[in-house]
């Protein structure tokens, strides 16, 4: 249960930061921000592990994300948000 809470919190934070950084108006609410942030966290985590920025095996007992996880999740959320905007055009 703690992991789920951690993913939701990380998704909310990453999605909110990505929305503030990427210009333009989005009409989606908090739920869309969380979903895009969680997808971005998965994308960013995959990228972060493959380039060596994140450890290959995170500690599954930690539900509070690390700073590296927040950074990679935010970058991933920005990528997902840009793709979302591009696909909606």
From TrEMBL:
Entry keywords, A to Z: Cell membrane, Membrane, Transmembrane, Transmembrane helix
Chief location bin: membrane
Superkingdom of origin organism: Bacteria
Membrane disposition: Multi-pass membrane protein
The keyword NAD is annotated on this UniProt entry: no
Compartments in which it is found: Cell membrane
InterPro entries: Transgly_assoc (IPR007341)
Residue ranges of the TM segments: 6-22, 29-47, 67-87
Stated family: Belongs to the UPF0410 family.
Protein name as annotated: GlsB/YeaQ/YmgE family stress response membrane protein
Higher taxonomy: Bacteria, Pseudomonadati, Verrucomicrobiota, Verrucomicrobiia, Verrucomicrobiales
């Amino acid at each position: 249960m703690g992991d789920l809470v951690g993913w939701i919190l990380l998704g909310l934070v990453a999605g909110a930061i990505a929305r503030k950084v990427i210009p333009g108006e989005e009409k989606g609410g908090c739920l869309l921000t969380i979903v895009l942030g969680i997808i971005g966290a998965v994308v960013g985590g995959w990228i972060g592990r493959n380039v060596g920025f994140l450890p290959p095996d995170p500690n599954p007992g930690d539900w509070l994300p690390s700073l590296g996880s927040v950074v990679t999740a935010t970058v991933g959320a920005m990528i997902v948000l840009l793709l979302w905007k591009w696909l909606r055009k």
